[in-house]
Structures are given as structure tokens and as C-alpha cells.
Amino acid sequence: MSNPETKSWTDSVLLKIVIVGVIILVLMIPSMMITNLVRERSYRKMEVINEVSSKWGQLQTIAGPYITIPYYEEVTISNGVKEIREHTLNYFPKKLDITGDINPVVKKRSIFNVMLYESDLKLKGRFEYPHLDALVINPANVQWEKATMHMGITDLIGIGEQVNVHIGDTILPMTASVPIAIHFPNGLKSRLPQYLVTSPGFDFEIDLSLKGSQGIYFTPVANTTSVSLNSTWPSPKFEGQILPDSSTVMAKGFKVNWNVLDINRQITQEWTDQSPQMMSVAPSSHYETTATTDATGVNRTVIGVELINTVDHYTKNERTVKYAFLLITLTFVVYFFCEVLKKQKVHPMQYGLVGAALVIFFILLLSFSEHIGFDLAYLVSSLATILLIALYSRTIFTDKRYANLVGMLLLVQFGFIYVILQLEDYALLAGSLALFAIIALIMYLTRKVKW
Fold it and tell me: Which of 46-60, 281-295, 395-409 has the lowest mean pLDDT?
């Protein structure tokens, strides 16, 4: 006859903890797979953005305008033999004011929304006669009749209208040309009349209708550069080496203004090809470097603004999946307490099914958020998961109050995770305090358990 006091293997608290722990670790495998799925969908979105942007206009950087004039110098080689060598003189404007409006445009491709923009910019400034003495250039050797005005623009596909240089009553059309003297992939140029570049100075205006994506940057090339932008986009991110002098961000849009002096940036006002000065476009993604010059000597002094999409549900999905371990563990803890404290038996298979339902929540969240947005998707997916597990728990526990307890706990957990996702700056603080409180509660409830 068997001893009535002999305990089944299911009565061992330590063994049950080990089994539950193994189930949690196994459930982490599909959770990691979901994280990879979120990233894969995010990469697909980036591919769509790049595809649409390539046909509309990339992230734009504008440098210039500046003037280039060829000149020659006589060089003595050896034995009194002289050689004529041709070089180029380059110089930026004395003053440059850039004003404009940036109008956001949303294009839909498949299930993805691509953030683009249209801008109407006006560049006004003044060029003054270059300081040839400082560059040791003989004015008689300068080929003034070959002077050209250049402007660097990242992606010419974004230009919506003919670009002209207005100098008084004179209108000079600009044509596509790879900019010389700066490190830019594309740009515009126009021939200048000799009387302009030989005069003490002249004022100019350029109207630029430019389309692009992500954001727009400017290189502060003049001795005094002023940039003023307006937009109806409510979520800007001001980037570059120099912060705006003033900015106003409202629900209906933003206004921003920069005033940059020549001593604020490492750009030479006048230079020749004998001492080249290189500038580059801002990176095609978000501006990363804080240095003004990289290892190749390319100057990256830019100021600008990016149009941030604050409803990127893939980022929120990836952050949510990080709470999978916490969500599954706390739910299992409730089941475990019901077993140990209230003598309610729960089979390991039932632990596994409940955990599987929690994992499926993250798949539901991802798939729904691509169509109805993250917030509504979170509400639908969490309520469906809570209802499923609560109803299933009613078949597990003889006392229905424990099933209700599980449902209430899940409701609190999903609500807390959603709040954490919204906090951003205080997410770590709130999460650490919550974990401390949870551990303290578990220690209190298990103080009389005989392990």
C-alpha cells in the first residue's frame, strides 16, 4: 500500500519553478524572432522611402552660391625657363539671406506612408570684389570674362522650376553642372558678365523651388549667413553644428532662424585650387557627425532641419517586444502563486499555452499597427489577448476569482507597458521603480512559502 503522504512530482515547488523557468526561456525564442520580423518590416519601409525619394528628391543640401574665375600665373621652372600655369579663383558672397517655406507632402506606397516636402526658397545676397592681394594674384592675370557662378545641390531631380539669377534687371539662367572647387555630386552654374565681377560689388537674388525628403540643409558660406524657414510640419528636428538663434514649434508648424558669422564656421571666404577647400552634402540619413571636418579634409559645416515622423510604429513595436520577458514572467508568477498559496494546480502545458498567447500579442500588434496605427492596434491586440487568457484561465481554476485576478493583472501590465512607451525620457526611471515594487511584492507574498 502506497504511503498517502508521498508527494507527486507536481507538488515540488522547486521543480515547478525550474519547469516554469524553462518554459519562459523557450518562449523567448519566438520573441526574438518577432524582433527580427519588426526590423525586417522596418527595413522594407526604408527601401520604399529610398525608392520614392530617388524619384522625388533626396535629403537636400545647398551650398553657395559662389563665383569661380580662372587665372594664370608665370612660374620659373629652372635655368630661367618660365611656364604659364592656369588656376582658378573661388570666392563666396559677403552676405547671404535665405528665406523659404517648407510644405510637407505625404505619398502612400503600398501600406507605407513616405514623408516628403516641397520648398520655395529665396536666396538674396551680395558679392564683393575679391581680395586678390591676400591670395597673391595679379588682377591682370585674371580671366574675368570666364567668370561663372556655381551652386551645389544634392539632388537635381528635386528642382521644380527653371532657376535664374536675378541681378538688377539682368536675368541669368542656371544650367546643370558638377560644381568645381567643392565636394558636391550635383549643382548649377551660370556665366557672369565681365562688368559684374570687375565692379566693386553686386546684389543677386535666386528663386529656388526644391523638392526633397527627410530634411533640408544649408552650408553657411557667406561672411554673414541668415536662414529663416517656415513650415506646417509640427515635428521638426534642428540639426547641424550650429543651433538656431530662435525657433518656435507649434501644433500647426514651426519657424526657425539661424544667423551665422564667418568666425562661427571653418570655411575660407576666398581660395584657389592650389589650396583647395572641400565641402560635402549632409549624410543621406540623419546627421551624425559633430566634427566640422572629416578625415579627408571635407568640410561638413551645415545647418538645417529634418521633418521627423513621430508615428513610426516599427520603433514602438520593437520597444514593446523588449517587455516580452517581463510580461510573460509576471503572468506566470500569478499562476505560480495560485498553485503554491491557493492550491490551484496548473499543468506545464497550460503555462505554455498562456505564454504562446502572450507571444502572439506582439505579432497581432505589428500586423494591426501597419494598417490602423500603433495606439489603436495596441488597444485591440491587448484586449483580445487579455480576453483570451482570462477565459482560458476560467477553465484552469476552480475558483473563478483567480481567473478574474489574472485578467486584472494583465490589464494592469498592458496598461503599464503602454505608459512606459509614451514616457520616453522617464521610461527607465518608471520601469526600474516598477520592477523594484514587483520584487518587493513577490518577497512579501512568498515570505511563508517552504521552498
Answer: 281-295
Q: How far apart are CA 362 and CA 385, in angstroms?
A: 10
- List Cα–Cα distances, 31 to 24, 60, 355, 362, 364, in angstroms: 10, 39, 11, 8, 13
- 234: Cβ–Cβ under 8 A, 6 or more apart, which residues? 249, 250, 251, 252, 253, 254
Asked if 297 and 324 count as a contact pair (C-beta separation under 8 A), the reply is: no
Nearest by Cα to 71 from 197, 204, 201, 200: 197
CA 250 to chain centre: 20
Strands 215-219 and 60-76: parallel
Region for 156 from its dihedrals, namely left if φ exceeds 0, alpha if ψ lies in -120 to 50, beta otherwise? alpha
* pLDDT tens digits, one per residue of 207-265: 999 999 888 999 998 999 999 999 998 888 888 888 899 999 988 889 999 999 888 87
Residues 28-76: tens digit of each pLDDT? 898 889 889 888 888 888 888 888 888 898 889 999 899 999 998 877 7
Spatial CA neighbour of 20 closest among 405, 333, 356: 333
Please report where in the chains the cell 498553485 appears, as a residue: 339
C-alpha cell of residue 363: 505579432
Give the per-residue SS3 of the chain: CCCCCCCCHHHCHHHHHHHHHHHHHHHHHHHHHHHHHHHHHHHHHHHHHHHHHHHHCCCEEEEEEEEEEEEEEEEECCCCCEEEEEEEEEECCCEEEEEEEEEEEEEEECCEEEEEEEEEEEEEEEEECCCCCCCCCCHHHECHHHCEEEEEECCHHHECCCCEEEECCEEEECEECCCCCCCCCCEEEEECCHHHHCCCEEEEEEEEEEEEECEEEEECCCCEEEEEEEECCCCEEEEECCCCCEEEEECCEEEEEEEEEHHHCCCCCEEECCCCCEECCCCCCCCCCCCCECCCCEECCCEEEEECCCCCHHHHHHHHHCCHHHHHHHHHHHHHHHHHHHCCCCCHHHHHHHHHHHHHHHHHHHHHHHHHCHHHHHHHHHHHHHHHHHHHHHHHCCCHHHHHHHHHHHHHHHHHHHHHHHHHHHHHHHHHHHHHHHHHHHHHHCCCCCC
Q: Which three cell numbers stand for residue 263?
A: 568666425
Whole-number Å distance between alpha carbons of 54 and 72: 41
Per-residue CA distances from 353 to 62, 299, 393, 403, 414 (Å): 58, 58, 11, 15, 18
